Amino acid sequence: MSDDSPDRPFEVLFLCTGNSARSILAEAVLKRHARGRFRASSAGSYPQGRVHPMAIELLRERGYETEGLRSKSWDEFATPEASPIDLVVTVCDNAAGEACPVWPGAPATVHWGLDDPAAAEGTADQQRESFRSVLLELERRIGMLCELPLESLDSREQVRRLRAIAQNRASSRRNA
Question: Which residues are catalytic, by number?
Answer without folding.
Answer: 16, 92, 100
